# Entry
Amino acid sequence: MGENSRRHVAYIQISKTMKKLLSISIDRSIWSEGSAVRERMRELSKGWDEVHIIVASDSTYTETVIGDNVWVYPTRSKVKAFYPIDARKLGRFIIRRRGITQITCQDPFLTAIAGVGLKKEFGLPLELQVHTDVGSPNYPYTIGNKIRKALALSYLPQADTIRVVSGRIRDYLVSRLGIDGSKITVRPIAVDVMKIKNAVVTVDLHRKYPQFDKIVLMASRLTAEKNISLALTAWTEVQRNCPGAGLVIVGNGPKEKALKSMAEKLGIGKSVAFEGWADQGTLVSYYKTADLFLNTSLFEGYGMTLVEAKAAALRTVSTDVGIAREIGATIVDMNAGSVALGIKAALGV
# Structure
């Protein structure tokens, strides 16, 4: 046996005694220093000898080292349709070169296409993560989500282990797919509750918006599934009984322009304030100085803002999504009348 062959055999033997994770992701914010996902992956890496993260992305991203044992690789795909193909090709290369011992995929849809293929090819244990409520009757509200749900129902039974963010999702997988509950781990999104409780208020919403005698806060991406239009419709009724109240919406997204236009057409523009996304410290101050937190999402896997609002001792009205019931939110139906009643009751008007 030649020297190179002996070295290769020795490397394989060492690799078998080490824990090396291949993670397949779609979250490009990992390239941003200080981002939540980068910090989570650094924390995760403490339990592994090596962590290799493939991220579905275009050619503007480059291979990066974000920790002593954490590497991030872009797929550098020309078009989105190539993400799973390129991720599997890159994964194949990393598995062979680094002696990967386990695969995890950020979702049971796009990344799972690559993950399931690599599991079959190399016989490695596969974990699929579920961060959204695929079991919600409102989840397949678009053709894209219908396809995602079909992929999830196909791929999840093929996983060796599954990580979900709430008991609601776990119960659905057990009842709907017949998956053994022992294979499923519930791991909520980490929220530093004590940090929120002990935080000092830096921005008082009532001082910032002195024209409002009551302030209802929303913190959300401005996307279709967050259903902000329902909140605006309900707000027209709230205004009739509580004309001095204000709705402050913190967040941004593709629906921002349409939602602002909707507020004006409904005649509630002066009582609705749209803000861009705030840093965590400012958002915590908002939680602590608002009178009510409102969530009208069509579905949530978890509902981190719900947990944050509770930690800040802010009353909450929410549609029946994520962990809203578990945190003691006032649950309302998915219609404007019910949402308006819930808001008015919580505000005492």
Observations:
- The first helix runs from residue 3 to 16.
- The chain has two domains: 3-190, 194-347.
